[in-house]
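call fold(seq) -> tokens
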Amino acid sequence: MTARILPYGDHALLVELDGLDAVLALLRGLEATRPEGVVELVPAARTIAVMVEPRILSLSAARGWIERTPPLPADAVEERVVELDVRYDGDDLAEVARVTERTEAEVVAFHTGTPWRFAFGGFAPGFAYLVSDAPVGDPLEVPRRATPRTAVPPGSVGLAGTFSGVYPRSSPGGWQLIGRTDATLWDETADPPALLRPGTVVRFREVR
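ret:
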């Protein structure tokens, strides 16, 4: 794994990596060995922002910790599992089936038949980009809509590229919608407020 550690202001370091798989593997290692003074770990597609309290953990000490931390495979840590009940009646389900050359039932079977892991947070509080554990070469890869919707209902379950996600609230969006859930993805009165967060594995379950 190639990692580049860069300064990121007075209270953080930015770790640049080769890709999302490397991000998730190092993130598991950092979470498992997290020292006092680390305030937050924020993953993205190719980076991890490591936020620290310098009075407790200096940036130089944080850099040394990152450099010494090995990446971990998914089966090396205990992950939090969240099950989401989904009604697969989305407006774009037929289009997803067409572009992936599957039947609608096969799209649903794929979506419910593989675990989806939190990769990184998205454009709205509570929105998570989820990646599947599908075998290499068998992803459900779906293009975004040519014309985004001006308003996507909360709880909508969508696909874009090789990601899946659930809209936590009504917002514009260009993901292909395949279903909907009644789960609350973001609750400001809860601690933490996000249902889906780093270290979470999501299993989608079909309901009628």
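The mean pLDDT is 92.
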